[in-house]
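Task 17 of the worksheet. Students: predict the tertiary structure of the chain below and write it out as structure tokens. Keep your answer in the requested format; marks are given for formatting as well as content.
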Amino acid sequence: MRRLAALLLCTGLLTGCAGSGGNPDGTWINQPIIDAARQGGPLREALLAYGPVLEWRLDSQRNLATYSNGFEAPQGRLSADEAGQLTVDYQGGVQEHLQLQGEQLIQQASEQGPQQQFSRATRELALGAPIGSHFEWALYEAYLGGKWLIREGKGQGGLVLFHPDGSLEGLPGADRYALCLAGDCASMAGENDSLWLQLGEQGAPWIFQREGDQLRILEAFNSAAPDQIPEYRPGRQAWLLQRD
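Model answer:
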């Protein structure tokens, strides 16, 4: 542990050491996904283009590294070499290699996925927030932030606010939401973007379509048989929202 701390100090704080510099400890989020989503297109396209890893959390003092891809959070052993390259080892001999380049953390291409780029998270969240929370907060703020006017649907003429903590105001029948980023909800929606809307303890999946400043929320029609895994397809439009 002392050797790792010394290596990280060498790569980050001493100008005479090799490497690109910087302390890797902390939380890193996949900013390219957020930047692409900010343009107002399909969320699925941004995730496929720049994912699949959404967030890294590095802790050199404990020799631990954890990442989130939206549905799992594997934890591995973190180590560093004399050149400042970071290696994360997992059971089964799987490895990921990370490198600080200026203000960016680069996850090198491997059998598990392509090269990906991460920026240090700047927002402080509550102590103990689960891995992936920083990415979700930044994504929700970029993708759904601002005021939305209900152009069509129940509550027409009202304003809707999607807060980055997952709370929701102004959309009839819902006070919480969550965007589907990966896992079962993504596979069940096929090529469509989906989100979860909830009121109190009751919730359900919905399909959404984002085109610039317009957001369509449609019923999720299950085309699978009752004894099969759900396959959700776009159903009747429930709301058309316009960003104010």
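Marker's comment: The chain is about 20% helix and 40% strand. The longest helix spans residues 133-144.
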